């Protein structure tokens, strides 16, 4: 990928920025350096390296799913402005 003024202008337009000529030169230099560092990674022999999913080695530590701290349906519906007493549901306005 070649980093030139045309690319910087295109990126500036996409990001809705208006860099000065000095800023464009600095952006061009910085982008070249970044891409150079990424290309440097291609030189590494990583065929025998396993992909790293978790840095700590701990995978998905979950708590047990236990029922606790709940309120009864009648108590919850007592605070509702409009409830269906027969079915035990909150009633809300129809939305279409």
Distance between the ends = 51 Å
Low-pLDDT runs of 5+ residues are: none
In CATH's first tier, which class of one domain applies? Answer: Mainly Alpha
Query: What about the largest sheet?
Result: 2 strands, antiparallel
- Number of continuous helical runs: 3
Strand order of the largest sheet: 1-2
Helix content: 25-40%
**What is the count of β-strands?**
2
Write down the secondary-structure element order: HHHEE
Task: Report the structural category.
Answer: mainly alpha
Task: Tell me the β content.
Answer: under 5%
What Rg is obtained from the alpha carbons, in whole angstroms?
29 Å
CATH topology of one domain: Histone, subunit A
Nearest-integer average pLDDT = 86
What coarse outline follows from CA principal-axis ratios?
Answer: elongated
CATH architecture of one domain: Orthogonal Bundle
Describe the protein in words.
The longest helix has 21 residues, at 21-41. The mean pLDDT is 86. The chain starts with a helix and ends in a 6-residue tail after the last strand. It is mainly alpha-helical and 96 residues long. The chain contains three helices and two strands, in the order H-H-H-E-E. The chain has a domain at 5-41: Histone, subunit A, CATH 1.10.20. The chain has helices spanning 5-14, 21-41, 73-77, and strands spanning 83-84, 89-90. Strand 1 and strand 2 form a beta hairpin. A two-stranded antiparallel sheet has the order 1-2.
